[in-house]
């Protein structure tokens, strides 16, 4: 809480060595630690979504910029506390109030945690995302039993978000932006590039032409860089807390019978920021809105201007995960209606979150399928790829498979952990809202399991191909070494002569004769070994053939002796 971010960004721990050639991974500079700590501690971007019974939604946002003054910070804190107190009151207009938080900070945790009486483990579960922990990591969250997890008032959805970058500089910029998050996330490049992912090298004429245009128009060189596409993946989390005192889905008895009690409902959704560099892979999930039918709008030809995309902000950049969620949460008609008298106001935000999570999982699965097919196609038809050059290309394919051999089991475990929290727990308050997405999650899980098996098979095939290539190269080296046998023989004979080399001419004649005869014999043997008679002779002289013949003769002799004895 005092640091404002994960501990590994605050200082170098005792006994930890720092590589001189590596860029420091700690985001706090030595000269302005206090300013950086204050900026992180006061960071705030909270949206309040008030879902009404009539289907309308009221939206308020509480945001602080990095250069906010103390007065702005106090005002934002006051407004957020006022919104929390209003959400806790019994209001008949707003059926459900949801606080959507982008990133985490000390002030946001204190205000929401104290105002809504939230378990601190809810925030701790969202801060870090480590696959494994070192034995000296004090911040490790211990694993809990499923029986204890079912008593928690929150659930967590884990996913992998893939992002496209035009070049290495964009990828580096995105990594720096991810390090600026208060929560710990890491962006990893898969290094699965193929020749389709980058522009071809320009010719000399194209370079001269581009240089002339750049000199005339004084265009920045960065605008003329070629595309060398990279793809990065980030393990993400979204954590949803529901008020324990909420009576969602419960019923009360009155004189009119069993009625739903919709009082005191509030929740908190934690989302992580999105790096501004790069784009969503394949521009992200599809459009979930209803496509208007042709001829419905009679005035459609009056305005010929193409409307701006609903998933782009005013600057034209792609929207963040936080903005995406708020956009689709306001479109209440795009989601399925809940069954069994479930609370529709709670179903909308949960289904919106599940739509986004399943969309990211499907994008990752499709991308993984594309990369595995490229590797498989390179094994079947290596001449199709221009960079395929034997063992080097095969080892490159093996390196790509090693990345997925590590990532796919992690992704499967993340998806399984998500499904076990809500779908397997039939008594959970939100289990009924997940039933609509059970089939989609099962399909994604089955695809990941199939890809994991496919990666193991492809690794075996690539290793076998590399072994065959190495064996072929060894045989060629053996043939090449055979040509040096006659010269080495002559050199050995000459080295045994202690007298001066008076008869050097005779020695050269013998060397020429021996070389020609040896080469002729080698070529004749190689030619004869390829004939059909040689193949049949090999089969007859093979050890297994001889053993089988000896066994047959021994059995026949044994049978004859038995008959004679009878």
TrEMBL record:
Assigned keywords, A-Z: Coiled coil, Membrane, Transmembrane, Transmembrane helix
Gene3D superfamilies in the record: Magnesium transport protein CorA, transmembrane region
SUPFAM superfamilies, per the entry: Magnesium transport protein CorA, transmembrane region (SSF144083)
GO annotations of cellular component type: plasma membrane
Membrane topology: Multi-pass membrane protein
Biological source species: Fusarium oxysporum f. sp. vasinfectum 25433
Membrane-spanning ranges: 510-529
Name this polypeptide is given: Uncharacterized protein
Subcellular location: Cell membrane
Gene Ontology MF: a single term: cobalt ion transmembrane transporter activity
Coiled coil: 434-461
Pfam families according to UniProt: CorA
């Amino acid at each position: 809480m005092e640091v404002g971010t994960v501990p590994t960004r605050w200082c170098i721990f005792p006994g930890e060595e720092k590589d001189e050639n590596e860029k420091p991974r700690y985001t706090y500079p030595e000269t302005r630690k206090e300013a950086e700590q204050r900026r992180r501690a006061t960071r705030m971007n909270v949206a309040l979504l008030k879902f009404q019974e009539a289907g309308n939604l009221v939206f308020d946002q509480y945001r602080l910029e990095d250069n906010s003054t103390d007065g702005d910070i106090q005002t934002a804190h006051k407004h957020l506390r006022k919104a929390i107190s209003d959400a806790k009151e019994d209001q008949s207009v707003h059926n459900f109030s949801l606080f959507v938080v982008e990133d985490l900070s000390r002030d946001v945790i204190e205000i929401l945690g104290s105002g809504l009486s939230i378990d601190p483990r809810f925030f701790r579960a969202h801060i870090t995302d480590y696959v494994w922990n070192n034995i000296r990591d004090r911040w490790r969250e211990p694993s809990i039993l499923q029986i204890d997890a079912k008593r928690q008032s929150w659930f967590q959805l884990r996913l992998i978000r893939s992002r496209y970058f035009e070049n290495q500089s964009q990828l580096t910029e995105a990594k720096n932006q991810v390090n600026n998050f208060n929560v710990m996330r890491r962006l990893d490049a898969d290094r699965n590039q193929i020749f389709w992912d980058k522009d071809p090298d320009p010719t000399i004429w194209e370079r001269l032409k581009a240089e002339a245009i750049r000199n005339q128009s004084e265009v920045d060189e960065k605008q003329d860089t070629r595309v060398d596409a990279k793809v990065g993946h980030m393990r993400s989390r979204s954590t949803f807390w529901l008020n324990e005192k909420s009576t969602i889905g419960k019923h009360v008895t009155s004189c009119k019978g069993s009625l739903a009690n919709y009082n005191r409902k509030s929740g908190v959704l934690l989302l992580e920021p999105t790096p501004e560099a790069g784009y969503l892979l394949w521009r992200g999930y599809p459009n979930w809105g209803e496509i208007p039918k042709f001829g419905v709008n009679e005035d459609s030809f009056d305005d010929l201007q193409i409307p701006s995309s609903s998933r782009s902000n005013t600057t034209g950049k792609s929207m963040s995960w936080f903005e995406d969620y708020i956009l689709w949460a306001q479109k209440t008609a795009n989601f399925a209606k809940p069954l069994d008298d479930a609370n529709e106001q709670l179903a909308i935000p949960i289904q919106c979150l599940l739509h986004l999570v399943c969309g990211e999982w499907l994008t990752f699965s499709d991308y993984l399928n594309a990369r595995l097919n490229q590797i498989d196609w390179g094994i079947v038809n290596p001449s199709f790829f221009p960079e395929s050059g034997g063992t080097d290309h095969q080892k490159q394919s093996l390196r790509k498979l090693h990345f997925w051999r590590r990532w796919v089991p992690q992704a499967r475990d993340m998806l399984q952990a998500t499904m076990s929290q809500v779908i397997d727990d039939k008594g959970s308050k939100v289990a009924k809202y997940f039933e609509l997405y059970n089939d989609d999650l099962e399909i994604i899980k089955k695809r990941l399991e199939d890809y994991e098996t496919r990666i193991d098979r492809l690794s075996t095939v690539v290793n076998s191909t590399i072994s065959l290539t190495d064996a072929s190269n060894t045989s060629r080296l053996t043939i090449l070494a055979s040509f040096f046998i006659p010269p080495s023989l002559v050199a050995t004979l000459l080295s045994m002569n202690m007298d001066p080399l008076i008869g050097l001419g005779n020695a050269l004649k013998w060397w020429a004769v021996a070389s020609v005869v040896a080469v002729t014999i080698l070529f004749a043997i190689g030619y004869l070994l390829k004939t059909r008679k040689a193949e049949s002779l090999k089969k007859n002289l093979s050890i297994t053939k001889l053993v089988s013949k000896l066994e047959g003769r021994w059995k026949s002799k044994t049978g004859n002796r038995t008959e004679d004895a009878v």
